[in-house]
Amino acid sequence: MKGLEFVFLAAGSVLGAFLRYKVTESPLLFNTLPVNVLIINILGAFILGAFVVLSQHWHLDGRYSLFAAVGFCGSLTTMSAFALDSTNLLENNQYGTLAANIIANVGLSIAALIGGKSLMSAIINN
Asked: Cα–Cα distance between 42 and 32 in angstroms, integer?
């Protein structure tokens, strides 16, 4: 990895981690479902979907992928916090909420990525 590539990666990572910290610093619950991590994962997936389309359309240099996809979205989204929230729900015997958490994080993140790609494709093709 060259120096400039590292700068792109680091800048994206710092911004993504900062945004994740700000969104998750005050826990939000919907009944007992932890919503902060869900919001972050959906937002990151949407941004990544939009970026993929822009990157392909504009033939962006790989450094922008280091910044946006790997750095920003990689440090914004959080599989480990999702796993921790899910484990806590499991340990508290909240099986319905656990199932909702898993379905929501995985399903809505995939839907958001598809939505980001679709929206950006629609914008570009108009």
From this structure: 19
